[in-house]
Design brief:
The chain is of the alpha/beta class. It is built from 10 helices and 13 strands. Strands 5-4-1-8-9-10-11-12-13 form a 9-stranded mixed sheet. α5 crosses α6 and α8 runs antiparallel to α9.
Length: 292
């Protein structure tokens, strides 16, 4: 049995440099553009770098982005569970800076509705409310088999608006950023109480103000790790990966929050949320030791 199954889409990302916004009919040349992979692969790559056995269940075709995902997964020791899809099923233009990021994306989300069973694991993580909605039945079956289920919200106004009305507690953990929490319930600080019907634990990441919420019935607030921020893309994914890595290994909620914050701080020092070299996370489990 694997430690963690991540279910979602791996995006081919093109990072558009700040201020490179041509007017209609014009062309702007820049010194360079960063190309990366992201989405569900962000969480999977950080978790693998932290030593978890990871399976990534994702739509895949045979395009250049799909081939890049396959090669990187082999390098990082991530097991792929591909779902048949069109070539290059998820692509994003990323507009980011040290403060925030925005995306223009295309994604073949409908493929996820065809999933019947997920690989056996201790934990299942879904990066996105739209993805979680399409995976409701297999997530429920995985939970009945003993897996813990976590969802990171992502920007989906329709799904966010429905969260406060949910009472099924279908997930063990819900993670939102500040803007998502505000969209879901008005005030970010109200999210742990207002969204308790959706998940047993609710955490809100607050950028340079840290993270706050309730984890395994423990109210928590942790300041941000001091970091020179280059790009915020993928920091939330890294936070979830670190948090899960600690909890899977039996750490306390406080220690899990700390490892999540440390992992996110490492990602903030680079462009994009993908770990291509596990050395980026070196030493974190020693700084925040987990039970074997």
């Amino acid at each position: 049995m694997t430690d963690l199954v991540v279910v979602g889409l791996a995006y081919f990302e093109v990072f558009v440099p700040p201020h490179a916004r041509p007017a209609p009919g014009e062309e702007v040349f820049v010194d360079g553009m960063t190309l990366a992979l992201g989405g569900a692969l962000n969480t999977a790559s950080v978790a693998a770098a932290l030593g978890l056995r990871v399976t990534l269940c994702l739509p895949m075709g045979h395009g250049i982005a799909d081939q890049a995902v396959d090669l990187l997964a082999q390098r990082l020791g991530i097991t792929l569970a591909p779902l048949p899809a069109r070539d290059n099923p998820a692509i994003s233009l990323v507009f980011s800076d040290a403060r925030d990021r925005a995306f223009v994306s295309t994604a073949e989300l409908a493929v996820l509705a065809d999933v019947r069973e997920l690989p056996a694991s201790a934990w299942v993580h879904v990066p996105g409310l739209e993805e979680a909605a399409r995976l409701a039945a297999p997530l429920a079956r995985a939970r009945r088999r003993g897996a813990r289920i976590s969802v990171s919200a992502s920007w989906s106004p329709q799904q966010l608006a429905q969260l406060a009305r949910r009472q099924d507690r279908a997930w063990d953990l819900l993670v939102l950023n500040e803007k998502e929490a505000q969209a879901a319930c008005g005030q970010a600080e109200d999210a742990p109480a207002r969204l308790a019907g959706a998940a047993h634990s609710v955490l809100v990441t607050l950028g340079d103000q840290g993270v706050a919420g309730v984890l395994d019935a423990v109210p928590l607030r942790l300041p941000a790790v001091p970091t020179q921020v280059l790009d915020s893309t993928g920091a939330g994914d890294a936070f979830c990966a670190g948090l899960i890595a600690a909890l899977v290994r039996g750490n306390t909620p406080e220690a899990a929050l700390q490892l999540g914050s440390l992992a996110a701080a490492r990602i903030l020092t680079q462009t994009g949320g993908l770990v291509t070299d596990p050395a980026l996370m070196a030493g974190l489990t020693q700084e925040n030791p987990c039970k074997p």
